[in-house]
Every structure is written in structure tokens, then in C-alpha cells.
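Protein in question kept underneath.
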Amino acid sequence: FASFYPWLIYTAAVLAAAAAVVAAVAVRRVGSSRPLALTTAGVAAVAMLLPPAVWSVSVADNLGVVDAHRPAGGPTSLEIASVLSGRMLRVLPTADMNRLISYLRDHAKGDRFTVAVPWAPQSGPMILAGLTPLPVGGFTAQTPNITPERLTDLVARGDLHYALVDGPAAKGMVTPDYPSYAPWVRGHCTAVDEFTNTVYILYRCE
């Protein structure tokens, strides 16, 4: 990885060479071998430990880490730029989320689940606001945690009255969601006019 902290390989090489030189001198000077031996051991230890230490600390440098969910050491890699990073674009802007939370707080009082959402991280701000969202597709939006039959049952019991669905202009949908959720919502619920736009749509389910 020549592009990953280019100075590192040269520093380690110089330290290793220095350790070798000191070791050679120690062998020639038997009388002063102990101090030189300790010096050799110290320089060699730094030469060996510096590269892995820098690699480990690189998870916090904001240069090589491109996936906040799975921070990794070393140089930037397209393989590390996972599906989850792209999906972060689906988190609603703060102003929209606050307006949605305010509406749900007033209209979903007493419901076991305040609103169903397709992706678990979308529910984070709602949980912090004291609401009880239902993440249907789990952390990846692809896990069939809640089936259409279960959604039907929750609505029939009065435990759930609202469902959030991505609009046609929503970003971050780099892979298909759990396919049964959105069609069920559109087929069983009615869009709330105040929250119908190209990025997200809130539905009322009866």
C-alpha cells in the first residue's frame, strides 16, 4: 500500500537498518554489549511496532474510513464503502424529521408503534424523541422482520396507524429494500397530504 502514509515504510526501514547496525557494533564490542543490546532491542521494537500501530490508529483519521458503520484501518478501499454508507442518504433532514416527529406525537398517541419505517437508522431520531417506531426491514432495510400479515394484524389491533415510505426521489437506495413493505403500505393505507413529497411519504393506516 504505497499510498498509505508513504513515510511509514521509509521510517520503518531506517529504524530496522539502525537496529542492525547497532547489533553489529554490539557484537564487536563485547564489553559494552549490554547497553548496545538494549538499544538494539528498543530500535528493533519500534521498527516492528510502528507500522501496525499507525494502521490501527488510522481508523480515527477520517482519511481511510469511508464507512461509519464499520471503521477499518489502512488505505481507502472501495470494498469498505459498503451498502450501509450509501443508505445514510436516506436519513431525513433534521427539519423534516422534527416536523414529522411533532405530527406523530400529536396523532399517534397511545399507539404501541408510532410509525413503521423501512430502515432501522431512520428510526433513531424518533427513538431519541420518545417515540416508538417499528423498523420493518431491520438495519439493512432488507430483513423481513415484519411480514405484511403482521402489519395487517398490528393495524387491526390498533397498535399501528402510520407508515413511512420512501418517495420516488429518495437517495441512498443502492440495493432493493425488503420488497413486501412499500406495496403493502400503498395498498392498505392513505397518504397524509402534509407529508407527501418526492423524498418520503407518510401514510395513515386504518
Q: What stands out?
A: Helices lie at 6-28, 33-57, 83-87, 94-107, 124-128, 148-157, 181-188. The radius of gyration is 28 Å.
